[in-house]
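Hey,

The postdoc asked me to send both predictions to you directly instead of through the lab channel. I've kept everything plain text so nothing gets mangled by the mail client. Protein one:
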Amino acid sequence: MASPAPTPLLVVTLLFRSKPDFGCLPHVVNSVSAYLDSSVQLPIVKACTFGSIPLLDRIWNSSIDPVNGQYASWSIRKLLRTERRYRACQFTYSMLEAIERRDFEMVTWLMEHFPGETVWGTVVTKAAEVGALDILQYLKEKDEGGELPNYDSDRDKEMEEVTPKRAIGWGECDAAKAAAAGHKDVVKWLYEHAGSDERDDGETFKAAVGSGDVELVKWLMAKLDDVPEKGMQDAAANGHSEMVRWMDEECFGSHFDTGRLIRAAEKGHVDIVRWLVEREFDSDDEDEVGEDEDEDEGMKTASEVTSVGGEATLAIEAALLNGHHDIAQYLFSRAEKPLKPSFNAKERVRRWKLIEWLHRDIGPANISDKPRSGIMLELVINGRLDAVKWFYTEYSKNLAINLFWNYDEDEDTYFSVLDAAAEHGHLGIVKYLDKMCKLVTPEEKAKREELSNIDYSDPDWEFEVEQNRKEGCSSVAMDFAAMRGHLDVVQWLHDHRSEGCTTHAMVHAARQGHLHVVEWLHDNRSEGCTSEAMDLAARGGHLHVVKWLHEHRDEGCTTDAMDGAAASGHLEVVKWLHSNRSEGSTTSAMDDAARNGHLSVVRWLHENRREGCTALAIGNAALGRHFEVMLLLHRVRDEGCKVVMTKDDLLMSEIFQWLMEHYRDAMFAGLQAA
């Protein structure tokens, strides 16, 4: 049955009421309304964000009047009826949006208007994560027992020609997401009513432990055949002291508790930190770290977490980096310290062994494996002046550690923490570090150089940082302060330091849209800038900066300006450059606009510029999951398609299937070349 035409816009109806001659021509009213009504050009997934069922009805019921021209058969609203793959893609993303909103009515609307479409596991998982038990129960009612499509299967391709039974993707991490969010009722319902061999029981148990729900953990222990030893670190991180103590009493494996102190410290849970440090350990229950304890004086302790190089030393840094100064001070007072310089190397060896162990249990993102100078850098970046002062006071006493400089492995160079303080706009820290640099005595510098030349006959000994560097900053300080828009820091450095800046200062201030900094540098410094300033300002969409540079500087720009503005979706900048500059653009403009999903930019470039695009444009749009852009390019361009991707990039994707149907040879060529 044909869908009813959408009701004309109220403003159009009122307009034509004042024109009696059109009273017998309702199709004119409908045509004018359709022309003016931009809402019907919204993709369904975008319309879902407004939470309006009438809007969804209007889009669904809208039709396209015959129009002459190259776009006559191309319209976003028409794609729902003409492009099967696009329709399936819109259904999935719209379901995710409706579930995120906990909008049961919208979910039912989508299910009714998209019959037979697969409800993928990502949709089920989202419903579980937000605790939408009513939606999960509804999906279970609509589960027709169909098989989830497997796009590698010829059988599934044949089945697509007939109306399939709706399949629901139960399992994987649905219960784990529900447990992590504290939805105990959803976890139990999934296991009791939507069982699946694909469900990750280990992740579910880990999430339940991390949520602190002891009752749910007990329920899962009774339900699951094989209980994994996971989650204690998450419980500590989330502050669930009852769970931490209960799991400790249950004795879940000898290594189950590794990393608890670090996670509790970095999240600021002082009660768990104190309990872990102050409780008595069984001295006979030694782990790998304890087994090779050095018998030398000062390298043993009764408690493994507070031993030299033990977990407490890492936890101090984790607490500091996350702003928990009180916990860091407490741990520092309880942790053993090396009693002589040679023990610094042994402490490092032990730290690295512990870090390797912790990487397995809690992951590298949760562990500080930086040298002490790296910790100083992080504190500076985070603007924690009190922590910077405390850390410098305690650790600068060790002349084997230079807290002023860090080594960048990627760039193979050293950089100053004072540079970092300037970049992040922490003027108080800049002033403090500047003062501390000037207080370093020649004797201390000589001692550091002496220590750097000592061979402790230990293959793992490595001096923390190159010592023969002048404490202070470099021109990077002002360059980066300008880039971040910290004019007060730029001015202080200009008045109190002699390092100055480079052309990067104005270039990157322009890039970030900091016109006030650009103007100050123009008036007070002599370094100037390059054409990159306008190029990057255009890419960033800072039209006011582009105009200022155009009027006050003579470096100009290159084709990178319009290319970059197009890639970033800044259509107004593209239009201004088109009208006021002569550099133009390249095919990269449309290629990169397509990659980033800027439909209006792609369309404008096609209509107003002659550079066109390359065969990469459609492939770029596909990589970015921008279905509408891909379909427009297919309709109005003739460059074809070149795909630079692996099959894993789009596996199980409707976009992948569309490409296989329309550019099969290009897809195979791209996959073979990858």
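Protein two:
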Amino acid sequence: KEKKAKPIVALVAVQRKMLILMFELWKKNEYYDPEFEQKKQQAYKKLAARGSKQQKVESSLKILMKLLVF
């Protein structure tokens, strides 16, 4: 009985995931984009690169402020 239950549980999980995706697309009136995850990851990488540059600038400014105080 357990051997048969596992594939059914997996099938229901996939169905639920697809249903949620379809509902979100319908709610936002958008079309499915198969490259959505790739685009999202590229955007995160750009933001991370921008963030690291900003951190370098902020740390440089802190060092300059310390030098100006003394």
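Summary for protein two, as requested: The chain has a mean pLDDT of 82.

Thanks,
C.
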